[in-house]
Amino acid sequence: MDALAVAIATGIALGKVSGRQTFRLSFHFGLFQFLMPVVGWLAGLSVERYLSGYDHWLAFGLLGFIGGKMMYEALRGGEGESAAADPTRGVSLVLLSVATSVDALAVGLSLGVLRVRIWYPAVVIGIVAAALTAIGMHLGAPLGNRFGRKMELLGGLVLIGIGCNILYRHLFPY
């Protein structure tokens, strides 16, 4: 669901979504959502206590940074600079991919502790994340076209809100 929300916000920021942008974001989100549980599973119990202490802070920081950048770009204007601000390219793409998949790392750690086979769940997680990302990109784009910078601001706020939610869920689990 985090990948879907981020994809909607990305579609809003872009306004017009190309097939390449959809593929890049969907592929990377799906790949990271597939890889993170596998990495977590391989890491096992010995590393879990170190990662669980700050994984939520990492996701919060990354989503806050990208959301803040989106809001800054919306407030700054600069229609001609949309290619430079494309969140489906470069460092932004990697940061969003990591931020939306940190929870999947924890899932992989849990499955490793339970000695559950990881390949089937990881493949399903990756495929579902990729599909929801593609859908989200195309849901967000019409909103961005219709409402312009206001929706880009809202998209940035949504990313920051997702980061805050992740942080809140980890700091106050119940």
Tell me roughly what share of residues is in helical segments. Answer: over 70%
Report the major sheet: none
Number of strands: 0
Please count the helical segments: 6
Structural class: mainly alpha
Strand content: under 5%
Shape call? globular
Number of domains: 1
Low-confidence stretches: 80-84
- Mean pLDDT equals 81
Structure description:
With 174 residues, the chain is an all-alpha fold. The chain has one domain. 83% of the residues lie in helices and 0% in strands.
Quick overview:
By secondary structure, this protein is mainly α. The chain is built from 6 helices and no strands. The chain has one domain (2-171).
Give the SSE layout.
Blueprint: H1 2-14, H2 19-51, H3 55-76, H4 90-113, H5 119-147, H6 149-171
Helix pairs in contact: 1-5, 1-6, 2-4, 2-5, 3-4, 3-6
Characteristics:
single chain, 174 residues, mainly alpha, 6 helices, globular
